[in-house]
């Protein structure tokens, strides 16, 4: 969707949300919260999820849940990513309820919470709490993705982090030490020059150093955002004022641009799938990508040529403040218009419980948010180094506040950053020019929304 159309649509939906806030959401649920159903009269709830994993949930996760709660019938509907935010906004601000549970990508939660259409899970549903649900066992970094203005509107259902995957064989062939959390950006670029190599001796380069997001995409700026965070910088300050129009911001974006020098031909068009394919075919030595792709890149023979012992995983290169990672958490909350909040919260608690999380980690290879799962026995041998990288990455992200802006306009901010990042990548603007223009547009956007700039 073109940026101007998407921003207009988001603004229109947000306007509807603000107008509707508090007007349709009930203050209290029925005394029994709709009940948990009986064998003679089961309760039905619907979940609005992303179509990347909705079928997986319906086919495998729901039957597992029903072993413990057979009288709660769950239907999981999948929606394409680009349609999910506007559909969820309309759902939470509409006059009737279709869905009992809705999901939010990391930057969407404030926008969804602002509608007033989600329960505060720690205050509004306590009468239906599972006594074994351990809030303190949740790692604070993924749990924080479901928080806004001091309230817990959602809990993590699919955790993720932007990490660095690397091909040990290509590092060995180049005679370069494998990276770890102490590898600096300066060292990474020195190594990158050696990792562009001819591996078969025919005189032609056939392996490169890096594959990641480069072209216009809302996720592309997360690369240089993480570099900025690793130097102690931020996109917005604590008062939601633009904070990236600095030498550090220019330096971070220039680092991202400079990665193209060590990337395969045509990498300027890379989004999500292209760097995955290049890495899995052994054409790139490193990949800055969401860690959840590890299994498909190192384990699943149907999708990769690599073996688990060939693939390492660690944080992104370190800046002056430490290594980098970027939080990307799918959280889920209970709609306030749900006729069955008790059943919806029971479902959501089970999915994010110790038991439910162990099941999803084993069945789907998804990443845990609970400390006990991360510290426990991984579901497979290949997951051991991944869990270690996750634990370190969660701490890094928490320390450096490595996430997209936490405000209802986050998606619109990211669209601006994506456009200006792509201008720098394509050579239409210098890093300095792109940063200045992005700062100007973000300032105008936030000022129009009432933020003091």
The global form is globular
Strand order of the largest sheet: 2-1-3-14-6
Would you give the CATH topology of the largest domain?
Answer: D-Maltodextrin-Binding Protein, domain 2
| Structural Rg | 22 Å
Number of domains: 2
Q: Main β-sheet, in a few words?
A: 5 strands, mixed
Beta-strand portion reads 5-15%
Q: Output mean pLDDT.
A: 93
Distance between the termini: 29 Å
Determine the structural class based on helices, strands and strand pairing. alpha+beta
- What's the helix count? 17
The CATH architecture designation of the largest domain is: 3-Layer(aba) Sandwich
Q: Could you list the spans in which at least 5 consecutive residues all have pLDDT below 50?
A: 1-27
Helix content: 40-55%
CATH superfamily of the largest domain: Periplasmic binding protein-like II
Level-1 CATH class name of the largest domain: Alpha Beta
How many strand elements? 14
Summarize the structure.
The chain has 453 residues and is of the alpha+beta class. It contains 17 helices and 14 strands.
